[in-house]
């Protein structure tokens, strides 16, 4: 919970913890994402209502652009991981990893309550996690995505794409 300046206490949104797969032969990858957004108004420069996801055809026949608050930060990336799991299941392919998900709704306000939850779950939910993927990153331009491979306080890796 969070206390307001007037003393009123508001409950924080729940953090969603999910998992799929327990194969001891597979590594366990934990994916983090958030679904909250910063405030927006159409007058801020939006061509569409920022809180209504709007699909607009792109310049190519098969490209569609999605416009809406949080489509890239961070609802789209969260949904991409869920769609990846859905695709493996639909194709009846073996999962290459065990999946764990941490999806929160307070990142834009400093992830209130997340640290406490992580400490509480450290000896249970997170004990078998081998890797963590934070999919809350940006694109360098409309055609150039960014691959975040390290951040302060975490282990960093060099990735070469050939």
Structure keywords:
10 strands, two-stranded antiparallel ribbon, 25% strand, 4-stranded mixed β-sheet, 2 helices, alpha/beta, globular, 162 residues
Characterise the protein shown here.
- InterPro entries: Cyt/Met_Dipeptidase, Peptidase_M20.
- Keywords: Hydrolase, Metal-binding, Protease.
- It is a single chain.
- The chain has 162 residues and is an alpha/beta fold.
- Strand 9 and strand 10 form a beta hairpin.
- It has helices spanning 71-90, 114-121, and strands at 2-3, 9-10, 16-20, 28-34, 54-57, 64-67, 98-104, 131-134, 139-141, 144-145.
- The model has no long low-confidence stretch (mean pLDDT 86).
- It starts with a strand and ends in a 17-residue tail after the last strand.
- The protein is globular, with a radius of gyration of 18 Å.
- The protein is 17% helix and 25% strand.
- The protein is built from two helices and ten strands; from the N terminus they run E-E-E-E-E-E-H-E-H-E-E-E.
- The chain has a domain at 2-37 and 73-134.
- The strands form four sheets. Strands 3-7-4-8 form a four-stranded mixed sheet, covered by helices on one side. A two-stranded antiparallel sheet has the order 1-2. It has a two-stranded antiparallel sheet with strand order 5-6.
